[in-house]
Design goal:
Four copies of one chain form a homotetramer.
Chain A: E1 6-11, H1 27-42, H2 47-52, E2 61-66, E3 75-85, E4 89-98, E5 103-113, H3 126-132
Antiparallel strand pairs in A: 1-3, 2-5, 3-4, 4-5
């Protein structure tokens, strides 16, 4: 895709380290979530608003490839990019970079169907599709 | 109180360690929660049932004193005891022990008002009080 | 593989739920870790012993497919299976089941190289390979 | 104390919510940590540097009083203040505010002895005391 990626910034918390003195692997998935929350907000469509309208984007697949460990107090950039946009599902990809040297630390993706309050798969609301396009 | 304490068992996860190679301090509060969930279940009144009835026990105070660090793969016992039982609030205290030598690792307490779906403070339902007494 | 899977048991904690009232997606990776820790212990080779010998198994890839959400107080079984065992890396797969009806909730895998204290990739120690075979 | 408080900013992550649709109570302790890390950095003495010098500030006591729940996507301010500075220990207090209306959500404190690599209590290094005064 030619679309440029949205950049979310965060600082590594002590909480996120483990006894190998690097960030524990599950936290990258939390960073992906913080980054896509921020991305949607930047598009003028906060995820909280989607939930108020009765739509949810649960995760049905998540993948992460870990290249170089992140460490305590590292400043991190998470790039978010919409990979696939279908009528009722979305694939988002991520790149995790260390800010000081733009070193690539990890890459990954998540897949999200759109569901309603009864947990049935439904089309994205039109206003949401417009905001993201 | 003369009431004997309920004992919840858990194993320390790698996730719970930090780069000091000990359990990060916020996880003890999660252990307190797991222990009181288990305690209520042992009394025949799972917390999930209380929520189904429309009652919630949020936390309004939490305290923990850390004596000796817990480490990865330690087998842990969390003792739970009702300290105070009022009409609309509850104080629970905890003791965290290392199983192999019964070494006391931490102590703490949490305070819980009883609220309804509108987040208003209400009396505990009678069946709940009976189960715990 | 014909090898039978090792079963790790856990109870869903309130901590692990999110405002969709289901388990937040990153926690499945924590469960995978708890399950493989338990698996190695069952083979007579606790992961803590591997670290004492100066070997580490960081994660270089993690994947999870989410089928049915886990909920608070669900009793969960995580099945662990060695998928691939090479000289210096290991692929482990997982199946997450709800205990009461053996419903499959999620599947996934992790990939682990063997590294030494200098973070260089090295062969697994012989005693470790023997324990797992 | 007349000293003005240092303000750390963060956004509530979905990860931090629970099925009551509010932030789960243990995460406030993580926020306290992020805030004090940021505070030390603002004083020109990042905590990572203290660890490199062989000094650690584990937590021996933590307390939090929860007044109003934080919610997903809330912008949060955590104010950090040194309450007590002794030769070998430190008490820090925190105030958690919602940014949009400066509503006070929680208050709390943590206590930290200064220890060395052998986990023995020692005086703070002089440069650290100077940076904080």
């Amino acid at each position: 895709m030619t679309q440029s990626a949205y950049r979310h910034r965060l600082s590594v918390r002590y909480f996120e380290t483990d006894q190998m003195a690097v960030v524990y692997y599950s936290h990258y998935l939390v960073w992906f979530e913080a980054a896509r929350t921020d991305y949607l907000k930047s598009k003028g469509f906060p995820y909280a608003r989607l939930e108020e309208m009765g739509f949810y984007l649960p995760v049905t697949e998540a993948y992460c490839k870990y290249l170089t460990p992140a460490r305590y107090e590292d400043e991190i950039i998470v790039e978010t990019r919409i990979d696939e946009m279908k009528n009722a599902s979305l694939k988002i990809s991520y790149r995790v970079l260390r800010e000081k040297d733009e070193k690539l630390l990890a890459t990954g993706f998540t897949v999200h169907p759109c569901i309603n309050r009864e947990r049935r798969i439904v089309r994205f609301p039109e206003v949401f599709l417009q905001a993201l396009s």
